């Protein structure tokens, strides 16, 4: 059977009060008494077209907040067997570590109750309080007991580069539970969104995500995270793929001359990346011409690096089908639309219900 | 104002090579003392009583120790005089200009006037650097052209210096770094671009490790290899900012040169920006064209450090994608990742393409 | 058969242990290195981009078992080209640090024999490094009484 797995779907917390049932009363009352009425991420301005497809804007509800609507639009109409949910509710930038831990647990418990148990075609990523990597690791161990959680979610605009050793408890917990780590654009730290400061426009923020992802990939490779955790897999979500060859060329070239600074990286960075890292294809930011698309795939090295995604409810100019998949052979299409993800997330055929 | 550079005071050997134009050569201020004669008394006194104050935690300034001393210089580029690499014109002639038959070299002095937290001192230093360049470089070898050093975080003072220095024909460019307090397209920098456009000088942005803003949007990485690798993200951010803020629309005569930031990222960034523009153009209605069109028409890019695709033939595809009129050869002498003009490309370029990249694109662009 | 010719590049006193001398032998620049009394000659041209290899920094090799672990071995037995910093073994001219470049060989598995592991390269092989495609030209060099002699 040919599966179709959508590796990047965004389920939204409809309202902060939806989490109260999963928070200790100390923290639900805290939210009410202190006027915290939303932690929706500012990275996606609600009014902008790209934030949600027209069909995902159903009345007053936050796009992506109703499991039935998402199930219908993504799974049924999209003919998707499994969708992996990446909840972007902004727990990670909270300054208070204890509150952040409570909120992350609440988001995960809410995901389990309102998504994983509602439709067995959903899988989810574990939201973790990166403010405290040790407690993030505890949350991974706790949440991973529910097999519906298949990934750990980290945000790309982090406090410190994600490869740094302070974050290793997270990678260790992920590796111990056999979970890939997904890195997604989103603001966790207080750093400017560009290495040049804060830009003016949302289109710049969004363009900058590819730079943020590349910097994180460089950090993960150079710090030796993949040497330390040999089974660790990382998924780069929602930031295109076309930049990958140019980054590998530059990093490989620098590694030849500067290798002694990071002697644990004892094979070319491009090899490390191909062995450990996967990329979702929405938005596909590659060329339009078929020959250029195929050359790009050739330069990446293999379609095995690519995972199909719709990035629902975000609305892109092109979708993966028209921009990428139609240029591939049927065998390669099958890998990208499902085979690669099934292997990565260890999804068994009997788990799949259409 | 000093006399034109064509009145070279020393004999210049005939070109023996391919008539190369090298678009990135570093002339180095040998010591702060060398700038003293060019500083007004007020700032000479300030230099003695206070001196340099930057954003760096270190007196010496570096954030990541480079791969070799003197800002990552080739260890074979130290002149016998013991002066810093790039500070001795005679040795530069011998090791670069004569050796490779360089007909014209664009000097990019990386003196960090713009990092001075005392902005007026920074501006005075920038002016001193330019006067030092005229006397010690431009007027000593007719093959040399130079970039105007400016305190670019103080755009009004930078604009004044651009207007002043532009009167000397040896200056062919204004030099900025990719690491700024804010993205360069933002309104505060417009006086600088306006002055450059008015004076007919392109604005060059050259690789530089600095300390103002973290080199990644996820904070400071651990290693120089990371700083060096992700520097290309800073170039992409600046180019994106200049496009999206409408700087190329507001100053249609403005030309931009990206120096030592790589070029393999250009096609992916153009695909990405054009793609995003289709969905998000409402936010930037001041743009008159597709993002990639500004790059094609108003941007040049230097070649060093040369891109090295795993499949060398892809370099030719890449050059065509970037645009054969866009690339200009550079060596980055005297730095460690120097590109040898005879060995830089992993594939043989067709003759017409080689002519464009090694010489003609730069010749017509800088009107050499 | 090509005639081998012998050139005196200096006196032994000129090149004590830990030092080197760059000699011009019939228009060819050659670096002669003394490692603990043994002499090695390497052509002063990097096979990568023709840089003056022997004018680079002479250092050891940094290898590692895991992140955060550094082992600094064979100090003084490697030369780093002043252009691009590639590292070459002075004893063999072998570049260790450019990986196999060819795409077809990306998935090669290399098995080193016991005999190979007993060579000079053993420590580097154990450290997981692989030989690069480049080898700097080397020449036999001997001490003949007071003189150091290179054979081309």
CATH class of chain A, please? Alpha Beta
What's the end-to-end separation of chain B, in Å?
A: 21 Å
For the record, the count of structural domains of chain A works out to 1
- Shape, per Cα inertia axes of chain A: globular
Describe the sheet with the most strands of chain B.
8 strands, parallel
Residue share in β-strands of chain B: 5-15%
Oligomer: heterotrimer
Q: How many helices of chain A does DSSP assign? A: 12
- The helix/strand class of chain A is alpha/beta
How are the strands of the largest sheet of chain B arranged?
A: 1-2-3-4-5-6-7-8
- The first-to-last residue Cα distance of chain A is 11 Å
Order of helices and strands of chain A: EHHEHEHEHEHHEHHEHEHH
CATH homology superfamily name of chain B: Metal-dependent hydrolases
Q: What percent of the residues of chain B sit in helical stretches (DSSP H or I)?
A: 25-40%
Helical residue percent band of chain A: 25-40%
CATH-derived architecture of chain B: Alpha-Beta Barrel
Question: Could you tell me the number of beta strands of chain B?
Answer: 8
Q: Do you know the CATH architecture of chain A?
A: Alpha-Beta Barrel
Structural class of chain B: alpha/beta
Shape, per Cα inertia axes of chain B: globular
Average pLDDT reading of chain B: 93
């Amino acid at each position: 059977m040919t599966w179709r797995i959508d590796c990047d779907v965004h389920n939204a917390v409809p309202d902060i009060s939806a989490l109260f049932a999963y928070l200790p009363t100390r923290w639900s009352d805290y939210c009410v008494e202190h006027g915290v009425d939303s932690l929706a991420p500012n990275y996606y301005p609600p009014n902008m077209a790209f934030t949600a497809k027209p069909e995902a804007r159903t009345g007053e509800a936050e796009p992506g907040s109703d499991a039935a609507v998402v199930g219908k639009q993504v799974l049924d109409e999209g003919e998707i067997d499994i969708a992996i949910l990446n909840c972007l509710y902004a727990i990670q930038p909270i300054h208070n570590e204890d509150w952040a831990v409570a909120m992350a647990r609440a988001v995960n418990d809410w995901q389990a109750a309102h998504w994983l148990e509602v439709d067995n075609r959903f899988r989810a990523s574990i939201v973790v309080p990166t403010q405290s990597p040790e407690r993030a690791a505890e949350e991974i161990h706790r949440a991973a007991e529910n097999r519906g959680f298949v990934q750990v979610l980290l945000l790309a605009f982090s406090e410190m580069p994600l490869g740094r050793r302070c974050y290793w408890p997270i990678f260790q917990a992920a590796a111990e539970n056999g979970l890939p780590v997904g890195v997604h654009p989103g603001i966790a730290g207080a750093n400017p969104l560009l290495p040049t400061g804060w830009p003016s426009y949302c289109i710049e923020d969004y363009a900058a995500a590819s730079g943020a992802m590349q910097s994180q990939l460089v950090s993960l490779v150079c710090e030796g995270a993949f040497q330390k955790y040999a089974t660790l897999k990382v998924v780069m979500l929602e930031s295109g793929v076309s930049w990958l060859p140019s980054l590998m060329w530059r990093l490989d070239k620098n590694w030849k001359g500067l290798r002694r600074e990071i002697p644990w990286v004892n094979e070319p960075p491009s090899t490390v990346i191909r062995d450990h890292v996967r990329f979702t294809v929405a938005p596909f930011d590659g060329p339009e011409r078929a020959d250029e698309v195929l050359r790009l795939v050739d330069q990446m090295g293999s379609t095995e690096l690519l995972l199909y995604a719709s990035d629902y409810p975000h609305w892109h100019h092109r979708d993966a089908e028209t921009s990428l998949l139609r240029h591939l052979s049927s065998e390669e299409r099958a890998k990208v639309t499902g085979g690669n993800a099934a292997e990565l997330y260890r999804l068994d055929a009997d788990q799949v219900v259409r | 104002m000093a006399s034109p550079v064509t009145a070279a005071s020393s004999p210049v050997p005939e070109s023996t090579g391919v008539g190369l134009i090298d678009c990135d050569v570093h002339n180095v201020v040998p010591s702060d003392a060398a700038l003293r004669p060019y500083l007004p008394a007020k700032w000479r006194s300030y230099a003695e009583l206070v001196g340099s104050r930057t954003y760096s935690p270190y007196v010496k300034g570096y954030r990541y120790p480079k791969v070799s001393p003197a800002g990552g210089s080739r260890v074979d580029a130290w002149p016998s005089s013991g002066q810093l690499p790039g500070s001795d014109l005679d040795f530069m002639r011998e090791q670069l200009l004569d050796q490779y038959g360089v007909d014209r070299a664009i000097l990019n002095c990386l003196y960090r006037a713009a990092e001075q937290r005392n902005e007026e001192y920074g501006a005075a230093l920038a002016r001193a650097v330019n006067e030092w360049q005229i006397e010690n470089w431009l007027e000593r070898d007719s093959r040399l052209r130079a970039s105007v050093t400016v305190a670019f975080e103080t755009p009004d003072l930078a604009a004044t210096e651009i207007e002043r220095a532009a009167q000397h024909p040896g200056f062919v460019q204004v030099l900025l770094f990719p690491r700024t307090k804010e993205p360069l397209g933002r309104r505060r920098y417009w006086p600088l671009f306006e002055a450059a456009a008015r004076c007919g000088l392109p604005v060059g942005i050259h690789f530089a490790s600095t300390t103002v803003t973290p080199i990644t949007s996820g904070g400071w990485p651990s290693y120089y290899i990371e700083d060096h690798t992700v520097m290309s993200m800073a170039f992409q951010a600046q180019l994106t900012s200049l496009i999206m803020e409408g700087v190329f629309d507001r100053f249609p005569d403005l030309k931009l040169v990206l120096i030592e930031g790589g070029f393999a990222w250009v096609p992916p960034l153009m695909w990405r920006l054009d793609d995003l523009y289709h969905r998000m153009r409402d936010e930037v209605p001041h743009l008159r064209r597709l993002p990639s069109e500004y790059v094609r028409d108003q941007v040049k890019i230097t070649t060093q450090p040369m891109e090295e695709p795993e499949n060398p033939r892809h370099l030719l595809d890449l050059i065509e994608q970037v645009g054969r009129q866009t690339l200009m050869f550079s060596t980055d002498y005297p730095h460690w990742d120097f590109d040898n003009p005879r060995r830089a490309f992993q594939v043989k370029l067709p003759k017409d393409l080689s002519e464009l990249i090694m010489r003609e694109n730069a010749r017509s662009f800088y009107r050499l | 058969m090509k005639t081998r010719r012998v050139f005196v590049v200096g006196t032994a006193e000129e090149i004590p242990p830990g030092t080197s001398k760059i000699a011009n032998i019939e228009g060819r620049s050659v670096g002669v290195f003394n490692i603990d009394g043994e002499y090695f000659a390497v052509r002063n041209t990097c096979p990568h981009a023709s840089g003056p290899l022997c004018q680079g920094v002479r250092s050891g090799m940094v290898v590692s078992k895991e992140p955060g672990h550094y082992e600094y071995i064979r100090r003084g037995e490697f030369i780093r080209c002043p252009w691009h910093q590639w590292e070459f073994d002075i004893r063999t001219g072998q570049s260790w640090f450019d990986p196999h470049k060819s795409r077809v060989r990306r998935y090669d598995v290399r098995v080193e024999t016991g005999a190979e592991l007993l060579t000079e390269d053993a420590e580097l092989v154990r450290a997981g490094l692989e030989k690069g495609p480049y080898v700097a030209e080397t020449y036999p060099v001997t001490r003949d009484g007071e003189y150091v002699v290179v054979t081309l």
